[in-house]
């Protein structure tokens, strides 16, 4: 398992260094994807290509799911889940909250995860059953925080209809918590939770590459990660917090979210 983590960390660091070096000249090259607000820069593509090449060289035959290139077919029960830049809009605007995220799944279970935040010089790592770390320091999420005192991170999708619903849900959450944060990167939100910088995170409609690595960082810090109504985390819904706060926020969200059954 540590071999997976070491390789994922080496590759995430190399991609992060490349992005930091090239961002000043290349970040403005932009295309849109699912909607006019959903952008991909030339460096998202370049970062994913570099990561794919390094994985294929070191682990030929493993499957790779990447945000920009989709999933390459393969027989292996090892799958790499790659977000070449999570927080692309921040990256585009020169904000530091963007990350390279690489998770390794074996038999459908994430066993190693790395979230590199190059502009901050922070690398979060986790291996299943072995804890979550920032640099050499072991991470523990905040515990014992009641909902009314919770700092809650969330995010919004790129589609207009989804955003309209998310706006109504967050309007119902805001009066009941300490405050809301919208950082612009799901991976960083979950790592922030692991480091005690926020208390909880929820979002409807994210992708496995957004939460793959950081989800393991969060759970290895002691947090619970899941969906609504007992479902596991999925592209439909991610909710994460220490036990206790998880249930309190869950029970509020199911009263507010019109898509609670999905
Ligand atoms: C996005 C970020 C954002 C979240 C969106 C994601 P991207 O990923 O994680 O925080 O709210 O749902 O799509 O597009 O920057 O890779």
TrEMBL record:
Keywords from the UniProt entry: Hydrolase, Magnesium, Metal-binding
Reaction it catalyzes: a myo-inositol phosphate + H2O = myo-inositol + phosphate
EC top class named in words: hydrolase
Cofactor: Mg(2+)
InterPro entries: IMPase, Inositol_monoP_metal-BS, Inositol_monophosphatase-like
EC number, UniProt record: 3.1.3.25
Family matches, as Pfam families: Inositol_P
Domain of life: Bacteria
Family under the similarity heading: Belongs to the inositol monophosphatase superfamily.
Name listed for the protein in its UniProt record: Inositol-1-monophosphatase
Organism: Actinomadura luzonensis
